[in-house]
Queue: 4 jobs
Job 1
Amino acid sequence: MICLLHKNLNLIVLFIVLSLSSMTNAQEPVDERQAIIQLNDLAYGVDWTYDSQFIAVGTLQTLSIFDNDLNQVSTQDGVIYSLDWHPSENMLAVTAGNSVEIMHWDAETLSLTILEKIQLSERVYFVRWNVNASKLAIITGTPTSQFQTGLDVAEITIWDGITFVHLQTIPSRYLFLTGYYPTTDLWDWSPNDPDLFAGIGNSIRIDGDFNTGDDVVVETDTIIYVLDTVTGERIQEISVGNGPVGYSLAWQPNGDYIAVGGETGSDIFHSETGEKIAGANGNHFDVFSLAWQLDGTYLASEQSIFDSQTFDRLGTYDVGDVRIVLWSPDNQLILFATGNKELAIFALE
């Protein structure tokens, strides 16, 4: 009788363990590498088509299109700092020196055709459509003289996303940004309001006599600036904290939170109140890229994956020196571009 009871208890314990194990596996992303390739240069811009069928990759040498197995299906010469697919059509916006080219992608002939060219006065480092493609944000600037990995923003220009007519210019007196590149993850449109645009900047305070150098103290505060692109005004300033500027910013798909990546991890702030909600700090190294899964399940911070509700760290992917992380629009794949000039794609169950 005692032996039989002992066997039954063992079966019950085993059943509970197996049940808990399957629940855990169902909640976590699956680390299953689908493809990996070596690029000819660092990837500065990477984006998926709206239907998750193709990936555009821009380097300082080429603009290439890949399928989801990372087979290259199209390539052309170019110096690409940023690119962005239209959210619902096969149109690609690409930086090209002091201009932005709007291209049509033909998925049957696997070819790109220039439809429109927007000319700017300075080199373009960033381009992105807003949530409904009614507007296009373009950022121009020059590398800082002190740090060649920094970028002084000259101005943010807003363009009509259909006619490509200029709508608004936001000069640097409203928004000064310095960030690390190759990455254009310092800026993001609101997923709810097509007129709101957010970026990371530095608030700098200098005490003492700067001319003589006596008792000079320089304090910096990293700020999230939320801009109204209709008026060009700041409508929200969220203090991230003292220290160096953040490296990446991503607005949660439902609009409630903004995640900021910095030197030792990521912090999450409420987009309206500015309250710090959580810290997704499992990396202990610079976070150059952040990405929310479009269905809101996960937050990718470098190669670490966090639960988007609890912000608990769920695990990591086997990649290093991540510069860009990106979810496919259908939520089935995650892509990493690394400082080792690699592209890697992992599949999710």
Job 2
Amino acid sequence: MTEQAGMHEHEGAQNTQPPAETGEKSGAHKEEYLPKSFVEQLIKDRLARQEESLRKSFLENRGVESEDELDEILTAYREAEEEVKDEVERWESRYNELSEKHTELTGRLTDLSSRYERALKSQALQQALLAEGVRPDRVKHAIRHADLSSLEVDENEEVSGIEQAVKSLKEEVPEWFTSKEERRGIPPAPQGSGSSKLSHEEKLKRSNLANLRF
């Protein structure tokens, strides 16, 4: 009896264990996942709403009522931008042409100014050389030999430095110049004749005799 009672107790203890959970209840504890396509659509819809909100805010901040109006404004802007770009290119081309012409004319003007200034210097020097008794056949040689760069021309076209230029020529090539006596018609005394000691009156007499010769 006792053994049977113990067996009954053991069976009763086993029967007191909680019943096994059914499949429906056990599934409640598993993690559930949404379909990927559903999640992607949610994200896409959310981004579209945000984009629409930003677009409306953008249009309102710029006083535009619709996207069509904005498109018209952008189209007109692009057309005007192209016109301005073409106009700028035309003016740049014209500017380059005028710059080249200006450079050419400036070079010609500089050359003409230099030549005119040299002509003024040569003319002033020639007059001074003739006044100082340069021989006529040596005038051009004297002008070429002179340092014209030492002469200056002012705004009134007056040439300065002539006296020093003539003085330098007389020191460097004195044979190109006649003496004062020769310019007054007194012939030069023969070399070695001792005539360099003639008095002024005797030189004048010789000059008069020379004038009487045919």
Job 3
Amino acid sequence: MLLTLALLPAALGANVFIIDDGDADVGSLVSTLEDGGNEVTLSTTYGVHEWEFTGGELALDSMDVVVWLDGGLAAPLNMPAAGQEALEGFVNDGGGILLFGQNGQNYLAGRHASMGPLIPIRAWPIYTGGDIRCIADSVVCDGYDSETLTPFDGGHLSTADTAFGTTAAHFSAWWDTSPEDSPLVSAVAYERGLGHGLQWGLWGNSTSDFYQTDWGNPDIAQLMLNSVRWLAQGPPRADPGGPYEGVAGDTFTVDASGSSARGDASLVSFAWDVGGVYAATDSEPEFTFTSDLLDGPSTHEVYLTVTDDDGRSSVMSTSLFVTNANPVVDAIACPTTVDEGAFAAFDVEVSDPEVDDTWTVEWRIAGETVGSGASVEMSFVDDGLVGVSVRVTDDDGGVAEAICE
């Protein structure tokens, strides 16, 4: 479901990553977005332009919105396949992407071949100048209504048919005598996987002033800020930490403090499930438990569900590997003297950190087993000093030993 801006909370700013196309006007768009309270990072911060971007330059998922500029110097060039794959993965995993007319025409020209699922506006005709007319309850037209014509200068891709998505605004050429009836599309919103995208027919950056979008135009600037705000409203990022490892019976703490919300939201709930055995839901990211119900050696899936204050949630898993805990000889009772030929009782108390473990008990003299069980009776035919020990083995091979003193 595409939510309108009216249903969103007040903007707090988004983390925006701009894929730089090398055009001189990139700085103007950066200023527009930063003036709106967003934190903007350029791909050139990592030393790459659009035609060099692979997605491996940064943790892309740490961003709320990616702005893909494909004009200027980048117009005749292909983004590397790895970069295309990274962008589609970013959107599928909950991110938002903002595109322009240049992306659609370059796609038609055979560039960025795998990016079709992210590019709904594709056309050859380009008009210069005209008006944008918002659709009532549009996801990005907060402050504008369907009766208002918003003029702009620069190029605009022209089409009445889009590949997919929901039309958010219409376009009419400057010479159109009935702009309120124009079927041409100016903006399309769509959902993809867990994320969503928005493409404007506005050309974007261009080496020609004739086509260049004026990012400083107050109306265009506001529409861009609206776009980023809507795109930033994605599901939270769940990070369960790990993988974790320890001994069964130990106390573990799993930590989700690496999780984060997107856009205006805040995280309010962390729900854990450890191997279907331990579970907890809390407003704090850490969960501490004693693992006595886990039978090592074994590996258990640890699932984390994080929920934000808008009710959106995400699930991520990691693993917990527990090794076997050895049994413990808690007490051993042995007589210090026994009459020759008489029977004497030998007793041992055993415990195990793992609730489900079982064990066997062997009583030994000189390395040979002479009895079994927690309690035994033994007699000795010859007088002398005899060394008696007990050996406890659990069902996973763990061993504990003790000597009669």
Job 4
Amino acid sequence: MGILSKLARRPQAAAQQGSAAMTPMSSELIKWLSGHTSSGKAVNEKTMLGVSAAWCCRRILSESIGMLPWAIFKKEPNGNAEKADDYWLHDILALSPNRDQTSPEFRESKTMGLTGEGNAYSLIEKIGRRISSLTPIFGVKAHRKDGGNTNAPGISEGDVFFRFNDRGRPIDLPRDKVWQVKGWGPSLLEGLSPIMAAREALGGALAQEEFANRFFAQGGFPAGTVSYPGWLTKEQKVEAQEALQKMVGGLGNAHQIALFQGGMKPEPWNTMNLEEMQFIIARRFSVLEICRFYRVPPHMVAELEKGASYASIEQMSQEFVMFTLMPYLTRFEASVSKWLIPAEDRRRYFLRFNFEGLLRADSKGRAEMYASGVQNGWLNRNEVRAKENMNRVEGLDGFTAQTNLASVEKIVEGAVGKAVDKAFARILAAREMERVSP
């Protein structure tokens, strides 16, 4: 494919990613191709991690999903579901997905893909028909075969295939060789990239960081000019600029006395200070913008809003689980069912995350959950001990429930029985009194 035809395809791909319409000669196309933003800063997978809020948001999402264990379950005919430890896919997902990663590390890598490129890809290796390894890969693009855009074997017309670079060499792989977890977006092939969607906010944050560093590198003084009563040659300009930079530039020269010669006169270029620029407010707003893109509560990235209380933070933490983590988890669960579990097993086997991982560091929360389970009859005491990695104890396998939660029928039966017992006891007492009376 020639360079012109490639450029012709780029705007179409950008439109699928949610970008505005672009012509091949527009500045917007040049920006999109280079990753540059209006701030002049290039935004990509590496540079965006230099923004502390973006680093923190992606780390929170990745580690939160990584710490939630998942397992394969089997549906029973009676409607129950039991953990299928003996199913062939369970060990790969729950214990060792590949030779280099643990299961939590694998989930973190997949989530990094979703929060970066908008898609998470893994290379599938098989022994026979069964998967033997899942290895995360990045920089993958999904395509649909249309004419001669690929000659790789095993890919028919209209099939989806995945292209990535292996040491500079493009490789096209069919659907059964790559596991894709697609992020949010309207495209049938790929999810939208959060980095591309948030590139202007990220570029602004990078520019603010660089501005602050340069400002303090100059000792906190704004930039200025030096006027000269005559004209300087090109060589004299270069020499004067170098001399001035050595004399007043950098932290080492901050608050030092500068000597100007030959009629040179320093004049301020910009007298606006950081407070007048609302610099701190702008930096704080950039943090909120990035949190908004990733739907992460600001308090989780150490940005405590005014008026935030313990109750409001607790509510925001619950919303984080419900509205931020749950969409990611359901994507993983649905993707495993569709692409990894064979079609003949999908009605019997499924993947589920275990939310108890969120309570692992919350002893009070665990205690309240266990108490509710034991008192309401959906957990027995040995099951609680097993969840806490404690040994089983004989006699604790029975289910218990509070008596005040018994059914109305049981309460009536119990009340009638007690009334009969009391009446019988009164009769016996009366007879005993008659017997001992003179």
